[in-house]
Amino acid sequence: MIFIAPVLWIFISSVKGPIDLYSWPPKFFPDSLSFENFTAAFSKGNFGLYFINSAIVAVSATILTLLINTMAGYALSKFRFKGDTLILFLFLSTLMIPIEVIMTPIFTVISKLGLYNNLLGLIIPPAATPMGVFLIRQYLLTVPDDLLEAARMDGASEWRIFWTIIVPIAKPVIAVLTIFSFMWRWDDFIWPLIVISDPSKYTIQLALANFIGEFRVDWGSLLAMSVVTMIPILIVFLIFQKQFVKGMATSGMKE
Amino acid sequence: MVVEKSKAMPMPIKKTNVQTMKKAQRKKKMAPYLFVLPNLLIFLIFIIIPALMGLVYSFTSYNGVSDMKFTGLENYIRLFNNAEFWKIMLNTLIYAALVVPLVFAISLGIAMLMIKEMKARGLFRAIIFWPTMISFIIVGLSWKWIFGDSFGVITYLLEAGGLPPIKWLSDPVIAKITIVIATVWARVGFFMVIFIAGLQSIPASYYEAAQIDGASRSQLFWKITLPLLKPTSLLVFMLLIVESVKAYPLIFSLTGGGPAKETTLIVQYIFEFGFTKSEVGYASAMSVVLFLLIGAFTLIQFKWAEGGKID
To answer: Is the CB of B294 less than 8 angstroms away from the CB of A190?
Structure first.
């Protein structure tokens, strides 16, 4: 109960009209249902635009993350090459440097590259997640080399081996990373706060924060936005749930 | 091109075959570099280079616009004399010192309950995982809604029970506790999942053997579970420390860092100087100090987990 009560409260409150919302003593269930808050959030709050911005960022960043992290994880688990330990060490060491620590210099880099106030600035830089590379690598270490050698004997190109053998095998861990990556990007706050200043490019988290920052908080719209914000993550989670459980049980956590 | 190795081979192989094999070998050599390249490139440009730039900035009076002027250790000296910085650093340490062990212990405890066979196990897991899917901004918001000093639900329940109201968000000490509770609530589910995975990888036969030898429950936990969970625990510790540094959004939406900076954590302070006040050099010096602190903690953990390797 402790775990769902606060969220349930938001859900129920979002369909309350102003009278139920501000009544004292507080009511858990409203007397009547009202979807006013939702229509207000979308019409006055410009929420549709922020939702689309967030969707563009989260979906494309997740696809990019999956592609490049799986590629890097494959290289670092199934090949021995010059510099492999150094690269692995670089990736692992930055597990410990959250971008928040280096946000001022990152800002300089972003501006120099013309990514300031650009949705691409939200998509590309966070895609190279050390956590993702780490998870994929640990998972692929368990794949037998013979399988790959056999394919090489048959004359398959490395790229083909990647797509037809590695990616299907890695499905469970890719599902884990899909959920993580989508959650990270969808819920991201500090990164968009640094990169975006133009309100027309706001993501929902920025819009929510902006809402809170205002002098008088319109709780009704805010609650409605919060509810809508949670839905996409729930959908992604439901789609990948089965693979996710399988992936969590087999990736990265082994000795 | 002379193919020397073919001479040593016992049977004559068609030249074309040897050539394609050589080509494949070459391709195999190049492949890992090409596979790792995109990730590495983004990584160098957006993490390694900025990290080095930050180090350089910390020795300058850079304000984000004008030319950099080298000022030596000036930023660091100013930082060490800034009482507010130390107060906020202490806030961050207290926060981390509470959040890290609490989340660790609670999520491990729940994970151990959740691997037992029982009715509706999946539902319980989903419910506990649920808060981790919500953004920190909304977590803060919902807690503000519930714990709010004037119209919070808890405040009402206390009042109805004849108890004095608690200043969840405006008392310096209680506000600190509130942000810790909110964080624990929001993160326990995530680490529970990681612990469940770790626990499942421990063979049941270990426990059976120990039980036959007459080991008690607590012995099972300290002698089998905990040592075998070391790799998982290390991962959890590392993630938790990084996360408690990043907790800015939650605090932003719950207390805004108040009252009187009592719940302000270091990332918020760096942001304030780096962006609002445009003192990039000074903010970078803070980042360097923070980074050294995180680095020291990491090192301690690696020492602790020396038995359990990460790969």
So the answer is: no
